[in-house]
Amino acid sequence: MKVRAECKFFFSDEQHLDTVFNALKPEVDKPTTARSMATVGRDGSFLVLKVEARDSVALRATLNAYLRWMNSIMNVLELLQTV
Questions:
Q1: What do you get for the CA distance between the two ends of the chain, in Å?
Q2: Cβ-count burial of 34 within 10 angstroms (0-12 exposed, 13-18 middle, 19+ buried)?
Q3: pLDDT averaged per 10 residues in sequence order, the chain, 83 residues
Q4: In the chain, how many domains are there?
């Protein structure tokens, strides 16, 4: 069974969108497992994350990983703005 998910994230700051996109690109280019595949794209002010996996467990694990990475990146960007 193949499962898919597509998530769109709005960014009001173009520079933050660029930073998150570029930070996730290496992860997309070299997936850590053969059970899932992710792509990251841009649609205007949106970051588009698409994940395809062999099963729902792999889909969930991959989505969780990307969401954690995005959250970490955004936390760092937020911290840098206060400095």
A1: 48
A2: exposed
A3: 94 96 93 89 97 96 96 94 82
A4: 1
Q: Which helix (H) or strand (E) holds 44?
A: none
CA 72, chain centre distance (Å): 11
pTM for the full predicted model: 0.89
Contact status, residue 28 vs residue 62, Cβ threshold 8 Å: no
Q: Strand runs (DSSP E) across 1-68, as ranges?
A: 3-10, 36-43, 46-53
Q: Two tokens at 78?
A: 């937020």
Phi (first) and psi of residue 45, to 5 degrees: -95, 15
CATH number of the domain that residue 77 is part of: 3.30.310.50
Q: So what's the pLDDT on residue 44? A: 96
Please tell me the distance from the alpha carbon of residue 58 to that of residue 61, in angstroms, as a whole number. 5
Domain span including residue 49 = 3-82
